[in-house]
Structures are given as structure tokens and as C-alpha cells.
Amino acid sequence: MRRTLYGPDHEAFRESAREFVNRFVLPRAEELIDRHEIPRDIWLEAGKAGFLGLEIPERFGGMEAGDYRFNAIVAEEFARANMALSSSMGIHSDITVPYIVHLGNEEQRERWLPRCATGELICAIGMTEPSGGSDLANLKTTAVRDGDDWILNGAKTFITNGYNCDLVVVAARTDPSKGAKGISLLVVERGMEGFENGRKLDKVGQPEADTAELFFKDVRVPGKNLLGEEGMGFISMMKLLPQERLGSAVNNVHHAKHILFETLEYSKERKAFGQAIGTMQYNKFLLAELVTKIEVAEAYVDQAVEAHADGKLTAVDAAKAKWWSAQTQSEVLDACVQIHGGYGYMNEYRVARAWKDARVTKIWAGTNEIMKELIGRDLGL
Ligand SMILES: Cc1cc2nc3c(=O)[nH]c(=O)nc-3n(C[C@H](O)[C@H](O)[C@H](O)COP(=O)(O)OP(=O)(O)OC[C@H]3O[C@@H](n4cnc5c(N)ncnc54)[C@H](O)[C@@H]3O)c2cc1C
């Protein structure tokens, strides 16, 4: 189906994102997997090309695109390389940086944003804890006032960019008596005493991402690193989570779509019983179903992107886009593995890696169950 979301400016921008992936990322695919991280020089190149500063005001060195469609273009093209590139850079520029842009005061924005735009500062966001991620309001990390400072204690886990991050927005309990209203956001910086980045976690997929635990032991965080108002952390996260979920939905659809079209080509070339496997009725129908599923999911997600660009995306519609696209991605990639036969199970094939990379999308940024909980509540249930 013809898409109507993007205009000529977006498509021109897509060319530069595609060129970046082709030039700096794809030729080093194996190196990224071996290193379990996206090397800093790739971050700096992404910064130079403007992909990290789409939400950052021009006066702080960003592009101030003011149109979420540009973020979506980057997500679509980065997902073509692999999910980890898209999620790592997305956590930085599409998720964490907006916290600083929207909640930061002028001094904080000046202090951090220019280096976020260049890739000199890699950002992460720490919400999830070893004791739980879905029940965010019940988080255990604490920050206690000491003069002008905060003393931070606790741990976060599964943190994207966790090993290499220079700056992490940490959700911490600043008032134990107030439940969700007792949570605040603190910016913790590399080098602060008592702040430790744990080892890179050994994940099922996305080996290119340096997902890690973070530990805080009596970290003295200066008062000037409180982001937004004290006690408003939970509300701020709820406001910014729909963009995270939408970005995730864009990734999900386009990651699966790229692999699906590679699988289609494979099905035209691979022969069994003297004919291309794609021309066998079962596979032909299966591919027809998969392409339809992807296009239908893409149409919903495109509409959500448009709504968000107009400032009208609801949290519930973002939740629908997120769980549905994750489910579709999972079904499509599983079928793509099947169409590849034994090769589909070999790590040297992109389809095998994509299948493993995608498993997490039903879990992170709010599980499918939590998305349905939000939707169910909206139905008055
Ligand atoms: C690779 C990766 C990267 C990540 N990156 C980040 C990051 O950068 N920053 C960050 O803060 N977090 C990150 N996360 C954490 C992620 O957001 C959490 O894993 C997720 O929110 C689920 O939390 P949990 O793992 O504690 O599961 P739990 O909350 O323990 O949930 C376990 C199961 O119970 C179900 N469940 C829980 N509550 C309900 C309910 N009310 N109704 C029905 N079912 C329920 C869940 O759906 C799930 O199936 C990442 C995770 C992974 C795997």
C-alpha cells in the first residue's frame, strides 16, 4: 500500500540515514557483534550527520526538527541494519534526550545537550530494577537529601547503553511516604563516586547492544542534577513513555519488513522439488499473509506517527501500536525463519539474528501484558 506519511524532505533525509547505515554500520556488522557494543566512533559519526540531535534545539547544536517523522525515518533505516543500532541510538536521542529537552532547566540543557548532539555523551535511562520493571511506581532505588545534594542508593538492570553511558537519567524514590508521587529523576554522570556500570549482560539477541546493570552506592548527586520537579518523576515518565513506545513500534514494523522482503527474494531463488519454494501454494499464501500483516501494522503505526507529529497521540494508542507491532514482528520473523529452512537457524543468516533480536520487543518499554492492561483500563475494565 502506498504510504502517505512522508514528504520529499523526509525522503531526502532517509537517503542520508541509509547512506550512514551502508557506510558506517553494515560493513562492521561482525565487529559490533564481537565487541558487544556500538563503538564510539560510530556514535560520533551519527552525531556529525545530525541523527542524535533531532529533538535538540539548534542553539544547543541540534537539528530541532520539530517533526517526529524525522525520528521515525531514522528508526526505520537503523532497524534495517539491526535492532540494536536502532534501540541503542533510539534510547539516546529519541527517549533520554527528550527528558533533558523537556524537563531540564536552561543551565542543564546548556551543560549536556551540545555533547548529546555530537555523540560525545551517550545517554541511558534507568527505570527498571532487579526487583521489577512493570510496577514502576514501586521502585526501590532511593535518593535522600543531604544539604543541596542527593545521596543515591540502589540498582537498575537491563539498561540499554548501560555499559558505555556517560549520563543516565535515574528514577529514584525521594519520598517514601508518597508512592508514585514520591519519585524524582536524577541525572547521574560517569565518574561520580559510587556509580558503577556493571558487566555487559549476555542476552539472547541484540549482541551489538551494551545492555548492563547500574549500581549506585552512596552516590552524591548534586542538587543541580535533579531533572524536573521533585516528586514529578513518575508523571514525567508517563508523559514521555508514549514516544518510547511509538519509536519501538516503528522499529518493530520496519525491522520485520526488511527481513520479510529479504525472505521473499530467498523464496524466489531457493529450489525444492524442482521449483522455487515461494511459488508453492502454501508458501505463496504464507508470504501473502505476512506482507499483508506488515502493511496493516505499518498503516496503524504510520497513523500513530502522524498523530504524534501533530501532538495528538494518546498513551493508549501508543500502547496499541507497541504491542500489536511487537506481536506482528514476532509472527513474521518466525515464519521467515521457517521459509529459510535450516539456514534460518544459522547465526550467519540475518534472519536468524533478526528472530533472536526481536524476541525482546514484547517485553521491553512495557510488556505486551502491560500494554493490554492500559488498553483494557481505557475500555472501562
Ligand atoms: C534488552 C533489554 C533492554 C532494556 N532496556 C531498558 C532500559 O534502557 N531502561 C529501563 O529502564 N529498562 C529497560 N529494560 C527493562 C524492560 O523495560 C523490563 O524488562 C520490562 O518493563 C518488564 O519488567 P521486568 O523484566 O521486571 O518483568 P516483570 O515486571 O517482573 O514482569 C514479569 C511478567 O509478569 C507480567 N506482568 C507484570 N505485571 C502484570 C500485570 N499487572 N498484568 C499482567 N501481567 C503482568 C509481565 O508482563 C511479564 O510477563 C530492558 C529490557 C531488556 C530485556
Automatic annotation (TrEMBL):
Record domain Acyl-CoA oxidase/dehydrogenase middle: where: 124-219
What SUPFAM superfamilies does UniProt report for this protein, alphabetically? Acyl-CoA dehydrogenase C-terminal domain-like, Acyl-CoA dehydrogenase NM domain-like
Q: Which domain of life is it from?
A: Bacteria
GO molecular-function terms, A-Z = flavin adenine dinucleotide binding; short-chain fatty acyl-CoA dehydrogenase activity
UniProt catalytic activity:
a 2,3-saturated acyl-CoA + A = a 2,3-dehydroacyl-CoA + AH2
Spell out the Gene3D superfamilies in the cross-references: Acyl-CoA dehydrogenase/oxidase, N-terminal domain, Butyryl-CoA Dehydrogenase, subunit A, domain 2, Butyryl-CoA Dehydrogenase, subunit A, domain 3
Q: Which residues form the signal peptide?
A: none
For the protein in the UniProt heading, the enzyme class is: oxidoreductase
Q: Which UniProt keywords apply?
A: FAD, Flavoprotein, Oxidoreductase
- Location of the Acyl-CoA dehydrogenase/oxidase N-terminal domain: 8-120
Give residue ranges for domain Acyl-CoA dehydrogenase/oxidase C-terminal.
Answer: 231-379
Needed cofactors, names only, are: FAD
Q: What is its EC number?
A: 1.3.8.1, 1.3.99.-
Q: Which family does it belong to?
A: Belongs to the acyl-CoA dehydrogenase family.
Q: What is this protein called?
A: Acyl-CoA dehydrogenase
Which species expresses this protein natively?
Rhodococcus coprophilus
Q: Which gene encodes it?
A: fadE_2
